[in-house]
Amino acid sequence: MEKMRAIYNERRRFIVQALRRIGFTISQEPQGAFYVLADATDFDADSTRFAFEILDRALVAATPGIDFGRGAEGHIRFSYANSLENIREAVRRIETYLGTRDQGMKG
Known about the structure:
The protein is about 50% helix and about 10% strand. It has three helices and three strands. The chain has a three-stranded antiparallel sheet with strand order 1-3-2, covered by helices on one side. The longest helix is centred in the last third of the chain and has 23 residues, at about 85-105. The radius of gyration is 14 Å and the shape is globular.
């Protein structure tokens, strides 16, 4: 049990730090779940549109915040119930996509 707790804690710390680094706001870190709810309004206030955009462009599945009520609109829920290797790859894909998305908006 302690080993699994340590593994999930490592995943949690990694994803929270990585999502913050690429521009998501996380006001409350998860304490007991396998998910992090990240504020994505700097990217898109429509969580459904943005979740599908990430799926289509970065090939990473995430859940729109609106699925958890109006108060979570503008947020995206990411799971860290996967291997650290897969989480790293997902974050890399999102970061790469957001970088190209930003370039497209500037040009």
